[in-house]
Design brief:
By secondary structure, the protein is of the alpha+beta class. About 25% of the residues lie in helices and about 35% in strands. About 5% of the residues have low confidence.
């Protein structure tokens, strides 16, 4: 009887050790790929390039901060606005646009027109500054950072 109890305890310990080993082994087998992101081809739209329906939505939303996207034909339009400003010398700068297999990431900033010497992409200066970015349609969510 004593031997049977000792065997049962030994088997229980062995099973516990094997289970712990398997948990570490399985956890170590996860794919550890670095998320590769790239900058998609895009255009910062002038007012005349924005689809009429989207321009109407922007006009309605421009009084407050907004972030929205619009799909039209084979293109995705991404808009970011900063609401009403006290001066008309503010503009929205595109700081980063990248894509990976999870989402499209858009990072924008609000700057004064005098501080744009190092900025490549920006919208027009306005009391209601916003920017609209056009890229090929991609079926991924858009993540905004303002």
């Amino acid at each position: 009887m004593k031997n049977r109890i000792i065997k049962t305890i030994a088997i229980t310990k062995l099973i516990s050790v094997v289970m712990v080993f398997l948990m570490f082994f399985v956890a170590g087998c996860e794919k550890n790929e670095t998320e590769k992101s790239e900058e998609p081809e895009f255009t910062v739209c002038a007012q005349t390039m924005i689809p009429d329906d989207f321009a109407v939505l922007i006009e309605e939303k421009k009084y407050d901060d907004f972030k929205m996207s619009y799909l039209c034909n084979d293109y995705l339009y991404i808009a970011v606005g900063y609401g009403m400003q006290n001066v008309d010398t503010r503009l929205v700068c595109l700081e980063e646009l990248r894509i990976n297999n999870k989402a499209i990431y858009v990072k924008t900033g609000l700057r004064d027109i005098k501080n744009t010497e190092n900025v490549t992409y920006h919208g027009e200066a306005s009391i209601y500054p916003y920017i609209v970015i056009k890229c090929k349609a991609i079926s991924l969510p858009v993540r905004y950072e303002m």
